Fold this protein.
Amino acid sequence: MKTIYWTTTLLVSGMLLVSAFTYFFHKETMDGIRELGFPDFFRIQLAVLKIVAVLILVIPAVPLQLKEWAYAGVGLFYITAIIAHIAHNDSFFITLINLFFFALLITSNIYLQKMTHLK
């Protein structure tokens, strides 16, 4: 049970960190976010929130209620990303990637709940 939780959590966290990094330093990503219609401050805000979410998700001592807020926020990010990319007629592959990580996020949350209810 812990293996599934940590594997899914670390995969989602890794993707969030890579994404945050590209939001700060990758010109194509920064231009792409603008093309999707989002203002520049939103790009920076999302990058910072992704890093904060990773810290909340991977630090075991963080209270469960705060982790739930992080899961909700990251879930909303994935839903927004899916809708934005579909509306922009981007490659379906991008949507599949977002759906995959959204499923990993849900799996991580399910296994966190299972582990906390066993204690």
